[in-house]
Amino acid sequence: MKDKIARIKENIEKSLQEIKTGKELYELKVNYLIGKMSEIPSLMKELGKADKDERPKLGQMINGLKDWATEVIAEKEKAIAEIERRARYEAETIDITMPAKKREEGSLHPVTVIKNELVEIFSGMGFMVMETREIEDDFHNFTALNTPKEHPARDKQDTFYISDDLMLRTHTSPGQIHALKTLKPPFKVIVPGRVYRADDDATHSPMFHQMEGLAIDKKVSLCDLQGMLDVLVKKMFSSNVKTRFRPSFFPFTEPSVEVDVSCFECGGKGCKLCKGTGWIEILGGGIVNRKVIENCGLDPDEYTGFAFGFGLDRIAMLKYGINNIHILYEGDVRALKQFKIL
Ligand code: PHE
Q: 110-339 in CATH: which number?
């Protein structure tokens, strides 16, 4: 039995030298210390067979072996845990001198920036924002807006038709009809959105953006429109910009005007931007035609209003010095990055 004890000790010592992982160490523990059939507890069971005289001595030796084995295994456990921890730390090390991954930062599209700015300004003047549909019927896009059947605006070369009655809206003015039919006067509303025309050159894109404005109340005059626009252009461009009205024609306004702002680039002296005239055209508008009010079921003797509409792309191009509208829609980030306005 003494030999056996010595052999077990020797074997444990040998194994411990070879063991490198926690799993191997656990197997050793099961084989010698804690397993049901493991070596050291089995020695205890065999003790009964030994000579009575020798039992106390052997018992002491077995206990000594057990204590020793428990201790050396615990030590080895600690050592292995430390090695494994180091290995894990090493694997997780971050090299802070490595170049970081570049994160591309986006920005708002110039047209969105202009739209947001205008929504902000108009909201401050009491206008509500309404968005209406992009596919319109003949009534909303033309007829209700007093645009008769033979009007050139209906030309198939300008309008993208979907069927005889349906088309992509050619302007945001149908928003006027939706507003007049759903809102209770007095009201002030703006309708921003996409519009479509079969037109394509440096300053025209088949899809572009407009913003419509409509104010309905009793006794509205052109002075109200001009007063409102004066405030608008000062906020939009700069505080010394002035407006100028020129007579014009739209079927849905009477009288109709075209509105110019004094050139915000040269202050009115004449430059490349204003083509030497000192003025830049920015919008069409006028007093809502009686027929439009009538077409929407309101009494034109009671209610009057002003309406206006302008191109958001054009304003963006003027403001950021973009000379080709397609730059806005080609999605070339090298171009758009230059207008990182936010
Ligand atoms: N709808 C017109 C256009 O697209 C602009 C406009 C709107 C004119 C409202 C007058 C009143 O050119």
A: 3.30.930.10
